[in-house]
Design goal:
The complex is a heterodimer of chains A (309) and B (515). With 309 residues, chain A is an all-alpha fold. Chain A has a single domain, classed as Orthogonal Bundle (ABC transporter involved in vitamin B12 uptake, BtuC), CATH 1.10.3470. Chain A contains 12 helices and 2 strands, in the order ααααβαβααααααα. Chain A starts with a helix and ends in a 21-residue tail after the last helix. The mean pLDDT of chain A is 88. Chain B starts with 9 loop residues before the first strand and ends in an 11-residue tail after the last helix. In chain B, a hairpin with a 2-residue loop joins strand 14 and strand 15. In chain B, 33% of the residues lie in helices and 24% in strands. Chain B folds into 2 domains: 234 residues, 3-Layer(aba) Sandwich (Rossmann fold); 183 residues, 3-Layer(aba) Sandwich (Rossmann fold). The longest helix of chain B is centred in the first third of the chain and has 18 residues. Classes of the chains: A mainly alpha (309), B alpha/beta (515).
Chain lengths: 309, 515
């Protein structure tokens, strides 16, 4: 395998958890609820999966447990943001802090213990001879393919279905959605919880792909990169797909440069996802002066039906 | 239509609704029939919108009963109301700005649908039929934020019709429309009435009510005062019922001899928002103790004129003299305030008041810098409470307390608050833009009286308004503004409505006034 193929493989491997988490955040944000709890949800998802695996549970069981852990934290986030109408940013940050502490506590007994099991790989050996990209796609695991399909399906869901139309209305103008007979509360709950499940899954995936054992704080900021990725992708699932591999590739490149012994550029590359996100934000800001809105308009605000304007 | 004209489609009995300590509806009673245009008339804050929001399921009443076609119905949410055939067109449009008109119409439809191309074509045809039937047109495939307010309102109305509403409620429908658009709207409403629908609209505009409504219910302070046939009443009686006393619009006071020239604008040229000149060689003078009215169709440079004189927009040619001193075009708004130029802006909640701040904070917005108000940069609010209490009493601002957020006050009280703040500064010159826009008769009367008093005390007032009646009523001199220039000057005695009307329409009458 040549260097490019190696790098691409690493980009996909590193990008997949980012993509899953970003799609989760994207779902909840399209409904108008910011999810800054991603880092905490990923950690709790990861630790739940490792606990199941350490007890001898199968890989699917571990994954499902990670998903359920995400769902529980999502339920908490939806309860504070939708029912209690608390500040979404504060709630998200609290979930991240809570998740960091909880995962460290739960994972203490199994920290560093190697875990058995791996995610089944889809063998497309016939692709291997294709130059450059062939080796990359020949041996990807099931979740990589599933996450790619999910990005495309979400895009179709948002753009082409009546449910997606309702979701767009919900994110841009919950008052209108309410008047049009959409249950704002229920729909926001659903999207936040399903979104958080994906973030939990992203955490569980880390256990079986990146590191084969639980280590405290093992997400290493991936949840935050996912939050940035949603903005980078301008709340668009397919763009998030491309962005995830770009950010994943930058990370892989940083790692490789570090191996070659030079320190500074690797930190520079680690910083790149955030720099790129800021650049995208600046470009959007300049563009929005011409009038077109570029993000879910109600993002971050609770909806109160009887509020007087 | 069946022949039973007496049967009511909507009956609301003994409705009570409170917002905090404010009683918005106090045992209000209302009934409307199919096939009529029923106007719910009242001042701002009389509780019309609240009553209609209860009918549309948005607010839940604390007491009272609602019947549709004689049957009591529980209205728990907008969804229930919509299912029962009630459609509401809100004053603040309920449209998703990023979606197209068609997408807005189908929003919330039950079940899963694939929104492909054939679906789109089918919907556009279906909606096209409705548009033709009622004569309401708008571009169906552009996002809402690109449409004009009139078009957005038509989308709202069609949305309600599309959902099969038989009872159509419009909250202040004409407040955002030009007179022409308003006439189109009423023609469409007439069509709906002819189709047997119940059309209910809330308004405070007497002229519209007299011209278009079949029956009228007047509301005052949360109560429904009386319901009557339009042909059995007149504007004067309606105004009295709305306000609760006879209305006398100030303005007939004799003109005092104006003093020396206060403001002299010479050959001023200003570049507008879109990079084109908005004022092109504008000349005008304002003397102490006179009201100079600037009439004209909106968009002819009125906004830019007001912005220049209040330091919000620089001019690039010409001179502005104020109290004998030539002003630099780069002066800031703060400079203009300290020189004694007051400003009643066009959009009071956008540039006049800070909605989330309290009444007290808003009153201090222009004086907080003074040494008297904030010694050593520290604001001693306590000290100002009593004085400001007196001020809001003097200007009759109705507010639960000095610490209430301004956005919770009614439009009329907001405007009075704005006047209180500006006049507390003792301005030498006041720039008032549409000072009575969106206000009901009672508050308009108060605003006119404030302006007349101010003039009599020697303040110069530049009144910029689209409402020709208002300009004719208040001004000592009337200037016609067109395409960034003053096109003619009239004194109140000489002024002739028709001449001004023709000038506004861009026609030069025979005796053109010298510029």
């Amino acid at each position: 395998m040549d260097v490019i193929a190696q790098l691409l493989t690493a980009a996909v491997a590193e990008g997949t958890p980012l993509l899953l988490a970003a799609l989760g955040c994207l779902l909840s944000e399209r409904a108008g609820i910011i999810n800054l709890g991603a880092e905490g949800m990923m950690l709790v998802g990861a630790v739940s999966a490792s606990l199941v695996a350490a007890e001898g549970g199968s890989v699917p069981a571990a994954m499902i447990c990670g998903i359920l852990a995400g769902a529980l934290l999502g339920l908490l986030h939806a309860f504070t943001c939708v029912t209690l109408r608390a500040n979404q940013i504060v709630s998200g940050l609290a979930i991240t802090l809570f998740g960091t502490g909880l995962s460290a506590y739960l994972g203490k007994p199994i920290a560093g213990t190697p875990l058995a099991g791996s995610i089944p790989v889809v063998n497309l050996s016939f692709l291997a001879p294709v130059p450059a990209i062939g080796p990359v796609f020949a041996h990807l695991d099931v979740l990589v393919w599933a996450s790619i399909a999910l990005a495309v399906l979400l895009q179709i869901y948002v753009d082409k279905t009546s449910w997606g139309l309702n979701l767009r209305a919900l994110g841009d103008s919950p008052a209108t959605a309410d008047v049009m007979g959409i249950d704002v509360g229920r729909s926001r709950y659903a999207h936040v919880i399903v979104g958080s499940m994906l973030v939990g899954l992203a955490g569980a995936y880390l256990i079986f792909s990146v590191a084969p054992s639980w280590i405290e704080g093992m997400t290493a900021g991936r949840g935050w990169i996912a939050v940035a990725l949603v903005i980078f992708a301008r709340w668009n699932p397919v763009r998030a797909l491309a962005g995830a591999y770009l950010f994943g590739g930058l990370d892989a490149l940083g790692f490789r440069i570090q191996l070659m012994g030079t320190q500074t550029p690797s930190y520079f590359l680690k910083m790149m996802p955030y720099v790129l996100t800021v650049v995208v934000l600046m470009v959007l800001g300049l563009r929005s002066r011409r009038g077109a809105p570029h993000m879910p308009l109600s993002l971050g605000s609770a909806y109160v039906r009887e509020e007087r304007f | 239509m069946n022949g039973l004209a007496v049967s009511y489609s909507v009956e609301m009995n003994g409705i009570v609704k409170r917002f905090g300590r404010v009683l918005a509806n106090d045992h209000a009673t209302f009934a409307a029939r199919p096939g009529e245009i029923h106007a719910l008339l009242g001042e701002n804050g009389a509780g019309k919108s609240t009553l209609m929001s209860i009918l549309s399921g948005l607010y839940r009443p604390e007491a009272g009963e609602i019947r549709l076609y004689g049957r009591p119905v529980p209205l728990q949410s907008p969804k229930d109301a919509s299912a029962l055939g009630i459609g509401m067109v809100y004053q603040n449009f309920r449209l998703v700005p990023t979606l197209t008109a068609v997408e807005n119409l189908v929003l919330g439809e039950r079940g899963f649908r694939w929104l492909g191309r054939s679906w789109r074509r089918e919907k556009e045809e279906e909606i096209g039929g409705l548009l033709d039937q009622f004569g309401l047109y708008f571009p169906a495939d552009r996002p809402i934020w690109q449409l004009s307010l009139g078009e957005q309102q038509r989308v709202e109305i069609v949305k309600v019709l599309y959902r099969g509403a038989d009872i159509i409620v419009l909250d202040e429908p004409t407040s955002v429309l030009t007179p022409r658009e308003a006439a189109d709207l009423f023609r469409a409403l007439h069509q709906m009435k002819a189709a047997g629908k119940t059309v209910i609209l809330t308004t405070h505009k007497l002229k519209e009510v007299m011209a278009w409504a079949d029956r009228i219910t007047v509301m005052r302070k949360g109560r429904t005062v009386r319901t009557m046939e339009t042909r059995e009443t007149d504007e004067k009686e309606l105004a009295r019922l709305m306000v609760g006393r006879d209305v006398m619009l100030a303005g007939a006071a004799p003109r005092t001899a104006p003093g020396e020239v206060l403001l002299r604008v010479r050959d001023v040229e200003v570049i507008g928002e879109h990079g084109r000149p908005a004022l092109q060689g504008l000349n005008l003078e304002v003397r102490r103790g006179e009201i100079v009215g600037v009439a004209g169709v909106a968009g002819n440079g009125q906004r830019e004129l007001a912005e220049c004189l209040t330091g919000l927009r620089p001019w690039n040619r010409g001179t502005v003299e104020f109290e004998g001193e030539s002003l630099s075009p780069r002066l800031s708004a703060k400079d203009m305030i300290t020189r004694g130029i007051g400003h009643i802006p066009e959009d009071r909640m956008k540039t006049g008041l800070a909605g989330k701040l309290s009444v007290l904070d808003n009153l201090l917005l222009k004086s907080y810098r003074s040494r008297e108000c904030s010694p050593c940069g520290l604001l001693f609010l306590r000290r100002w409470e009593r004085r400001m209490e007196g001020l809001i009493h003097q200007f009759d601002v109705k507010t639960p307390s000095l610490h209430t957020a301004v956005q919770q006050l009614s439009g009329g009280n907001q405007q009075k608050l704005l006047f209180a703040r500006e006049i507390e500064q003792h301005p030498h010159l006041l720039i008032a833009v549409h000072p009575a826009q969106g206000l009901d008769v009672g508050v308009t009367e108060a605003v006119y009286r404030i302006l007349m008093d101010l003039r009599n005390e020697g303040t110069g007032i530049l009144l910029i308004s689209e409402d020709l009646d208002e300009v004719m009523h208040l001004s000592d001199r009337i200037l016609m503004m067109c395409a960034g220039r003053i096109k003619g000057e009239f004194t109140r005695d000489r002024s002739d409505r028709e001449t001004i009307g023709l000038l506004m329409a861009g026609v030069s009458p025979g005796e053109e006034a010298a510029v």
